[in-house]
Amino acid sequence: MYRFAVIFFVSLFATIADAADFRSYGNGRFGYVVDLPADFKTVLIPENGDGIGLESADGSAKLSVWGNYLTEGGFSQESAQRRKFVEDDGWKFTYEKRGASWASFSGTRRNHIIYMRQIALCDDAMGNFTIEYPSAQQKRFGPLIERMVKSLRAPKHCD
Question: What's the pTM value of the predicted model, to 2 decimals?
Answer without folding.
Answer: 0.85
